[in-house]
Amino acid sequence: MRHLDYICSPKRCGVKVTNITLSAVKDRERGEASGVSETAKGLGTSLGTAIIGSVLVAALLSGLVSGVQQSDVLDDSLKEEISKGLKDNTMHMKEEDIEKELHKLPKESLDELGVILDNAFVKSLKFCFDAILVCSVLCLIVSFFLSKDKLHH
Which of 1, 45, 83, 136 has the greatest number of beta carbons closer than 10 A? Predict the structure, then answer.
């Protein structure tokens, strides 16, 4: 099992892809090609992280709002207050303020909010995984349409 981790590690796969890419480049152009390759890798990693992070936060907030609205335990005024707070103040909420508000709630409401949070978190992670899978499949499909003649010149 340890050998499989070594062979299939992302770092090792990245090295293989870089070696394959640079093998098609003439010796005098390898420095530039390596720079372009590393820049593209860094840019892709940064953009991928930012996009998936944004999708995760959006899916989590959406799941929280819908979970609160569908709850049978929370009363309507609390549902409205929580939903409005999530929609309006997500960027400005401080952990201390949230803790103060949570201490005012009855135990059954706190338990229900814990369940809603757990469900929203799991759903948002599944959604992100699906988004990553779709992007990977699209990239794979696009890679089949790259002209092989252009790759060897």
Answer: 83
